[in-house]
Amino acid sequence: MNQNSLPDQKRINDGFFSHVKTDLPAGLVVFLIALPLCLGISLASGAPLFSGIIAGIVGGIVVGFLSGSKVNVSGPAASVALVVLMAIQSLGSFQAVLAATMVAGVLQIILGFLRAGTIAYFFPSSMIKGILASIGLILIINQIPHAFGYAGKELFGSMEDGFSTNLFAGVLDQISLGATIITVLSLIIIFAWDQPALKRYTFFKFVPSALIAVVVSVLVNQLFVAYFPQLALSGNRLVQLPAADGIGEFFSFFTFPDFSQLTNPELYTVALSIAFIASLESLLSTEAGDKLDPYKRKSSTNRELKAQGIGNLVSGFIGGLPVTAVIVRTSANVSSGGRTPLSTITHGTVMLICVMAIPRILNMIPLASLSAVLFVVGYKLTSIALFRRMWKAGKRQFVPFFVTIVAVMLTDLITGIMIGGAVSVFMILRDNYRTPFFIDKKAHYEGERVELVLSEEVTFLNKASVMLTLDHVAPNSTVVIDASRSVNIDDDVLEIIEEFKATAAYKNIKIEQIGLDKFFAQRKPA
């Protein structure tokens, strides 16, 4: 292959200011998407709303500088909101959660130095989807009070031990019609704005639906204030960020950890939960970000763990929620033209400037509109289409997926993950005990012929091994992937092979495959 005919993969300039013209606008777009999500995730976490803004700033500036990924965008994530919500209840204060966040950051840094960056590949996709689906369901459930302006103390009771029996008790007389109108209107705007027919136009493509819903909700509430005061929302039904009269007062708003809780064993359970979920999402987002990157650059997952760990140390120390790499913001970054870390640093910097300069405008945002945004986020994690796909994928995929959801909903996150993982391993071992996996892992040199002979059963347990072996194939080699003996190849492994086939041209690698076509033909849609 003529190397000069390849895309700019071989010649790209990764310098910090090499793509200023596209990175700065992309950073602004990501900020517009991230701002309502930072506020909404704080709301879902039961934490001060300012903590989500802090996490967005730290994720943009601190992690942006340290991460090896060129396109990742970090900040607070819905996946960690449930952990924080439960942790505030179990530890008794948000300051104790901040200490746990810092401990989680230390754990992530240690994992990075232990080169544990491939850990995410050892978790089956069915279990991961189950974790995210359960978080989506709980996210939706916990936003119902804010969506309807419910003024009671608790609509669902404590989520610490799973579901409460205190559902909808005395709710009707506590509902706000104004909040309900804003929630419904926000949902209509978000779904209408995201229709493919409108996304053909540049304005609808780059202006996020969540931002439009929030802006319209502010205008509608101001209309209520002027003409329909009985519908107007105020007080704790609006965002309540501290407004500073100067730089000194602004920095006084930061909350610091309660280090006295470091002697509490429960804190370390919370820290492990945060470290696990934040690391898992960050690694999966890094993998997805590398696939989205038009230059197909590979990020160091170990460096990403260290960067996220330092981010959580900083965020926890100054009062922020835990940070992770977030695929929604990363995807928006790439599609908007982000090509270097300058775009994610720009989004964090703009967020810092806004929270310092215009907090009173942000305080006009109704919580009902943020709930509508979170309804959509939760539904994307746990959509009906996802359940259908998992059902069609067969019991090996559906059973661990469904068990993980039920276990998380009825117990807590870590217990649910352990139960789901145990079921996943049982399902695999049941099919795998007679057919051990074999793969050639010898070192290869440029120009050699590499043969990978797959066994009868190739499962997600082999995902990391297959990926690492293919990643280390030298340029100008010929790779033979022999699946003639295989009876079943897991979708996770097929995805790895498919991705390798799509990017092999960049290293001038020729691929020969034996018996693989039938598995790709039978593959269920992801």
From TrEMBL:
BP GO annotations = transmembrane transport
Q: Which compartment or compartments is the protein found in?
A: Membrane
Sequence intervals crossing the membrane: 24-43, 49-66, 97-123, 130-151, 171-194, 206-228, 267-289, 310-330, 350-377, 398-429
The protein in question is named Sulfate permease, MFS superfamily
Give the highest taxon in the source lineage: Bacteria
- Output the Gene Ontology cellular-component terms: membrane
What keywords were assigned to this record?
A: Membrane, Transmembrane, Transmembrane helix
Pfam families attached to this UniProt entry? Sulfate_transp (PF00916)
Protein topology in the membrane: Multi-pass membrane protein
Q: Which residues form the SLC26A/SulP transporter domain?
A: 21-404
Organism expressing this protein natively = Pontibacter lucknowensis
Extent of the signal sequence: none
Q: What is its main location?
A: membrane
